[in-house]
Amino acid sequence: MQIVRQLDPLRDALAGFRKAGTKIGLVPTMGALHAGHMRLVEVAMEQCDAVVASIFVNPAQFGEGEDLDAYPRQEAADAALLEAAGVAVLWAPTADQIYPSGYATNVSVRGISDGLCGAARPGHFDGVATVVAKLFNQIRPDAAFFGEKDYQQLAVIRRMARDLDFTHDIIGVPTVRDPDGLALSSRNAYLTAEQRADAVALPEAMREAAKAIAAGGRVTEILAEAKVHMLASGFHKIDYLELRDANMLALLDDFTQPARLFVAAHIGRTRLIDNIAVS
Ligand code: PAF
Asked: Do residue 100 and residue 205 come from a single domain?
């Protein structure tokens, strides 16, 4: 695996692939890789001839009070995992390769970025859309892979790609879960053993609510019951538990297809998010 930090050698490496007609897959990450990320790599390996993974802890998507310096950085361990998985190129740019001196451009995807996590993290999805647009231009992949765990991010990126005429495929990869249903997340590491056991109430409440909504129950009542269940099971604050249209993420009071349930809730000092399809 080639580890590349500057644009010129990146372009050289990619030119070689293109000349050979290689289908290039991109897996963008901020490092601190876990099984969820490695699933993205696995799917990219299945669908493409060569996989480029990127690691860049993007300052533009961290808001006030979100500790950029404390974000875990473990490039050597990440590189070993990526190499073992068969990744061809690790793009680990220096900051100036993404935001050169005088950088002044922002990509903002209106509407879709505003609710759900966007409400609690103003500017976050602008930072994501901006860096992902840069990565798309730098790598010009044939397909790019993102986890459905961050479904709002995926929806923002899909919209941005359509709006800015990126023509490559954007592939959403289903969430990887522990056997009890909890979605894998680097944040799960912050849970105590007791909180980890209680956290199963989140996927349980989501599954039950999705089933009841699909069966024709009243959405507001079902969601209120799900919140009660979570609050009685160790969660102390629910930022949102909402039914939304799966494409534009518009809020739904009644069940219409395609729909998804979205949740963000706090347990101990950890904020967990999740989403599932309702069908
Ligand atoms: O999901 C992430 O890790 C990041 O938001 C991404 C897509 C790599 C952009 O920095």
From this structure: no
Specify the CATH number for the domain of residue 126. 3.40.50.620
| DSSP string covering the chain | -EEE-SHHHHHHHHHHHHHTTPPEEEEEE-S---HHHHHHHHHHHHH-SEEEEEE---GGG--TTS-TTTS---HHHHHHHHHHHT-SEEE---HHHHS-TT-------TTTTTSHHHHHSTTHHHHHHHHHHHHHHHH--SEEEEEGGGHHHHHHHHHHHHHTT--SEEEEEPPPB-TTSPBP-GGGGGS-HHHHHHTTHHHHHHHHHHHHHHTT--HHHHHHHHHHHHHTTT--EEEEEEEEETTT--B-SS--SSEEEEEEEEETTEEEEEEEEE-
Q: Which residues line ligand 1 (CB under 6 A)?
A: 28-30, 58, 61, 128, 131-132, 150, 153
Predicted TM-score (pTM) of this structure: 0.95
> Which residue has its alpha carbon closest to ligand 1 atom 9?
128
Do 167 and 201 lie in one domain? The reply is no
- Active site members: 37
Its domain, for residue 159, covers 2-173
pLDDT exceeds 90 at position 67: no
Mutate to test the pocket of ligand 1, among 55, 61, 158 (most ligand atoms within 8 A of CB): 61
> Is 207 found in the same domain as 89?
no
One domain for residues 128 and 191: no
- 29 C-alpha vs ligand 1 centroid, how far in Å? 5
**In a domain? residue 180:** no
CATH number where 200 lies: 3.30.1300.10
Banded model confidence at residue 73, pLDDT cuts 50, 70, 90: very high
pLDDT score of 89: 98
In this structure, which residue's CA is closest to atom 8 in ligand 1?
A: 29
Which of 152, 173, 194 finishes a domain?
173
226-273 confidence digits (pLDDT tens): 999 999 999 999 999 999 999 999 999 999 999 999 999 999 999 999
